[in-house]
Amino acid sequence: MAHIHLVVGPVAAGKSTFALRLAQQHRAVRMNLDEWMAQLFRPDRPEVGVMEWYIERTARCIEQIWRQTTRTLEVGTDVVLEIGLILRRDRERLYERVDARGDALTIYVLDAPRDVRRERVLQRNREKGETFSMEVPLAFFELASDRWEPLDEVECDGRDVRFISTEKGASTPPAAA
Question: How far apart are CA 37 and CA 91, in angstroms?
């Protein structure tokens, strides 16, 4: 049975680096929201009203990513989802979909102290390395960091959840179960 690997955490927690390694380890297809957003919408980004513009397009991308995810699972291939979901209600919507289909799900929660993550954003913006898809302005970093809702005991109950600290760098995924 194909498996969904959901990678969540606040901005610059090391999710993209971790997701790349996880996809390689599991020979999985990686779905990254930032890549979709940058490719499809970056040229159209307005000067004002960016947050409303961003939220609406994010929702459309996640719908399409979910369609691709289900098609990929149906042919027996694992999927690594790195699609934001910083709010609990958004994760709950995904869990409902996963549960309705009966898919296997592992959730990887990455985190690092805010000052470490802030420095990572600045470095990624400068270097534009392997996981760079778009520049993250500091104001957006702060807003998204403030909005991040960590998983609590209720959300974790009955789910395969793995907490990973990336303070020293993006961790290597745990060995396949």
Answer: 19
Return d(Cα 98, Cα 105) in angstroms, integer.
Answer: 7
Helix (H/G/I), strand (E/B), else coil: 176: coil
Report yes or no: 77 and 4 within 8 Å, Cβ to Cβ.
no
Tally Cβ neighbours within 10 Å of residue 67.
10
Low-confidence ranges of the chain (pLDDT < 70): 42-43, 45-51, 53, 169-177
Please list, in sequence order, all residues whose beta carbon lies within 8 angstroms of the beta carbon of residue 80, skipping any fewer than 6 positions away. 5, 7, 19, 22, 23, 26, 28, 29, 30, 31
The Cα–Cα gap between 162 and 109 comes to: 6
Residues in the chain: 177
Distance, in Å, from the CA atom of 34 to the CA atom of 92, rounded to the nearest integer, reads 20
pTM given for the model:
0.86
Task: Identify which of 171, 150, 169, 175 has the alpha carbon closest to the alpha carbon of residue 9.
Answer: 150
